[in-house]
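Curious: explain these tokens?
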Amino acid sequence: MTSTVPNAVQHTDTAAPPITMFGPDFPYAYDDFLAHPAGLGQIPATEHGQEVAVIGGGLSGIIAAHELMKMGLKPVVYEADQIGGRLRTVGFDGCDPSLTAEMGAMRFPPSSTALQHYIDLVGLETRPFPNPLSPATPSTVVDLKGESHYAETIDDLPQVYRDVAAAWNACLEEGADFSDMNRALRTRDVPRIREIWSRLVERFDNQTFYGFLCDSDAFKSFRHREIFGQVGFGTGGWDTDFPNSILEILRVVYTEADDHHRGIVGGSQQLPLRLWNREPRKIVHWPLGTSLSSLHGGEPRGAVTRLTRTAGNRITVTDATGDIRTFRAAVFTGQSWLLLSKIDCDDALFPIDHWTAMERTHYMESSKLFVPVDRPFWLDKDETTGRDAMSMTLTDRMTRGTYLLDDGPDRPAVICLSYTWCDDSLKWLPLSPKERMEVMLKSLGEIYPNVDVRSHIIGNPVTVSWENEPWFMGAFKANLPGHYRYQRRLFTHFMQDALPADKRGLFLAGDDISWTAGWAEGAVQTALNAVWGVMHQFGGATDATNPGPGDVFDEIAPVELPED
């Protein structure tokens, strides 16, 4: 997601479980499911070694493949580009290899509890991410309409910014039962969660984020809405989300997905790569020492070019080499628009209403540009003011958000000169990396006229525009008003008993299938849904002491709105 504000309510109840991004649409405790000693389930021994296609080697695909392998199945992973998907970490040519740039996911909230399970599993370290005004950020500069304000906390900003923060908190409380829902999520009170959310889904499915603000007495001031959109708090401005459904925003703030972000030391792509090479200690059928890598001879298969249904309700996959394989089950984790464009698909793969849902999926554009620098010079103190020479910067200029990333005062560092979304991202699209950098340096030079950023740059910039990436065509899904029904179809697709036999066996997973797209947690949760679906397809079951998402589906299924 794009950005958020500090919590509307401070919590002190240390006895409650950690809040998790499991709700409110599907309040299932994926973290408990993963932590249970009984494991995720088992399949009959007669099915061990059966191949299952996993299309897409991003986080969702690799987790699905890893868990299916542990059950004794043989995942066959197809990946068009590189393992990691939108967990993409790159280096800088000719620079210290410890200098990295996160081209996709770069900050993860503690409420991503299922994601954290895998981060811990592979032994990765996290540390606080320097969002604006966070404790991990020495200082923040807010620059609007040519006027800059330096702040170490929100109290250092002019009163109007504090008024905007208060207006957002009031808007959430009065319009969306924030405290009540947050408390129910924190205590995992499923009946209360469903009671509140059912009412809000019916009320707000047709409402934009901006319309929600305008309907609030707290945000009657256009100036307040403008500041909130351009700057916001927490991770930046909210205006790129203004056309989206308010339900998307409420999912984020209720679950504190906007708060206390952490980054993965060394880069987020390490997570899927380590899972690819991991040799589970608890594994069925396969000998100890088996990994996804070893099952594939070190590399996944290439891009999928064709998907069809064939006799016996099988899924037949053709890859870029022309190789054709047929499977009893497959998991598709790529961006769903690929099924409409780059992959030749049989209409019989999905029911028609699922095709409609995929066609209507709305994606957000996003771009970033990073440069390596010789040291974190921004920590130098201005001799006149005593302030940091440069700060994490939020602005209405082209750069929008500038992040300063260091690994100690005497080591090379990295600047994310610009992180933007939607229209702001499209403005960069025609420009080369160096052209982008020049525009960004000019903007920052106007904010920091006494700082020569260019003199500290030690390598070429690296950049990404996700809308221009051929296997992604966007950064992440964001529902528009009226899209709730579409999202429900896609998320619940793993429950296939009610489908005709010739529509079963192909399971959707990944970021854009989740209720909380734009967060890696959604990729994890939908992967686990698909794992349950495949296990069920092969006649398997979970342990009675650890029911899976499909076992309890009827109790916690997402609200179903009428179609007529």
Observations:
- Residues 1-14 have pLDDT under 50 and may be disordered.
- The longest helix spans residues 159-176.
- The first strand starts at residue 51 and ends at 55.
